[in-house]
Amino acid sequence: MRQNCTFQILAPSIARPTNSFARLKSDKQSYNHLLASMQRLRARVYLKDGAIQPWEIDNDGRFHMPGDEQCWHLLLVDDAKEVVGCARYLVHDKNVRYENLRVSHSPLAKDASWGEKLRTAVDSDLQRARAEGLCYVEVGGWALAEEWRNTKAALEILVGSFALGELWGGCLGSCTATVRHGSSSILRRIGGTSLRIGDEVVPPYDDPEYGCVMEVLRFDYRSPTKRFMPFINQLTATLGKCPVLCPSPVPAWGLNARPGAYLPEQAARLELTPAFQ
To answer: What does pTM read for this prediction?
Structure first.
C-alpha cells in the first residue's frame, strides 16, 4: 500500500546555492541518510531490471554511481523517510569543456563513425550555453519504486528537470536514456530531442555496461512540450519551497550565485562513468 510522498532536494557541498530555493539547510546526517536510501533504491531497481550485476552492490545494499556527491538530486521521500523515486543532475558551469562531460566517455563517443559527430553536436550546445549565459546539465540516475509506477509521481520525477531548470535560471542539457521500457520515448514527449549534426541524427547505440540500447537526448529546459507547461509551472512553485539539504555549511557569499556543480580542479579528479542509467 502506497504512503504519501514529498519532494526533497539534495545539493552537493561544492555547489554554489541559489536564492531560488527558500529552504536551504546544512544537515550532514539527513543528507547522508537520504543519499544512502537513494542508492539502495537504485540498487534494487537496476538489479531487477538487469542493468547492473550483484557484485556492483556494496555490503549496505547500495549502488554508487561515480560522482553522486557532486550532483544535485531530486528525491521523492515516503512517510518513513525512505527514498521511493530519484533523479540526479550534474550541473556544469557554462565554460565546461566537452572532455569534462560524462557523455564524452560514452561508448558512442568512442565510435569511429559517430564519435566526432557526437562531439560536434554537443559542442554546439556548449557554445550556445556560453553565449546565452546558461548552465549545462547532464541528467540521469532515474529510479522509481515499483509501487509508485504509473502514478503522478512517475511523471513528476521525469519532468522535475524542467522545473529545476527554471529555478536555476534556464539551462541546456543532455542525458543518455535507455530505450528499455520506453524511457527515451517518454522523455521525447516531455521535450527531449535527438542530437543533430546538420541533417544527420545521432543514432541509438548499444551500451555493454548497462546491457541495453541507449539514446543521447538534448534538452532546452526553457522549452518543454507546451501541454506540460501548466504541470511544470506547478512543480516549479512546489520545488521552490521544498527542503534543500547540503552536507556542509552554506557559504554566505554563495546565496545569490548560480548553481555551478563543481570547481575545475575537482572536475579533473571526478571519476567518470560511461553512461547514465
So the answer is: 0.85
CATH number at residue 223: 3.40.630.30
Q: How many domains does the chain have?
A: 1
Would residue 276 count as lying in a domain? no
Q: Could you list the pLDDT tens digit for every one of the 277 residues in the chain?
A: 456 889 999 998 765 545 556 567 889 999 999 999 999 999 999 999 888 999 999 999 999 998 899 899 999 999 999 999 999 999 887 789 999 999 999 999 999 999 999 999 999 999 999 999 888 999 989 899 988 887 788 888 888 888 988 888 888 999 888 887 677 888 888 888 999 888 899 998 888 877 788 889 999 988 888 999 999 999 999 998 888 898 877 544 343 444 443 333 333 333 333 333 3
Residue 23 resides in a domain? yes
Enclosing domain of residue 72: 5-269
Residue 149 within a domain: yes
3-class SS letters over the chain: CCCCEEEEEECCCCCCCCCCCCEEEECHHHHHHHHHHHHHHHHHHHHHHCCCCHHHCCCCCCCCCCCHHHCEEEEEEECCCCEEEEEEEEEECCCCCHHHCHHHHCHHHHCCCCHHHHHHHHHHHHHHHHHHCCEEEEEEEEEECHHHCCCHHHHHHHHHHHHHHHHCCCEEEEEEEECHHHHHHHHHHHCCEECEECCEECCCEEECCCCEEEEEEEEECCCCCHHHHHHHHHHHHHHHHCEEEECCCCCHHHCCCCCCCCCHHHHHHCCCCCCCC
